[in-house]
Design brief:
single chain, alpha+beta, five-stranded mixed sheet, 3 helices, 33% helix, disordered N terminus
């Protein structure tokens, strides 16, 4: 299910260069699902494949896409100057649970600090 706040205004989407390059390497099916989730977020909603990344703070969301035997993640933040920022994207390689690896969390925190 997808939820919308419905304020009718689409926020611009900004990208960290490294995140854009990572997404460009993902399979087309994964890119399509991520782009759909980002469009919903830019329009003020929340895609059903997005969830808060509570370990980082408010307004930070993670989109998770499973494709074949792989898992792909995209992290964006909604609370910076009216722009939705894609700050990280990666293919999850850990075989130990669903939790986002500490190395990826540290990178998200560093990029978020630079953004703010």
């Amino acid at each position: 299910m997808t939820t919308f706040r419905g304020h009718g205004e689409t926020r611009p989407i900004g990208w960290f260069r490294a995140a854009r390059k990572a997404v460009e390497r993902f399979p087309e099916t994964v890119r399509d699902r991520l782009n759909t989730a980002l469009t919903i977020a830019a329009e003020g909603g929340k895609a059903d494949i997005a969830k808060p990344l509570k370990r980082i703070g408010p307004g930070v969301m993670q989109v998770a896409v499973r494709y074949r035997t792989d898992a792909y993640r995209l992290v964006y933040v909604t609370e910076v100057s009216g722009t939705l920022w894609v700050i990280h994207a990666f293919q999850k390689k850990s075989r130990t649970g669903i939790r986002t690896p500490k190395r990826e969390i540290d990178l998200v925190r560093a990029r978020l600090g630079r953004l703010r």
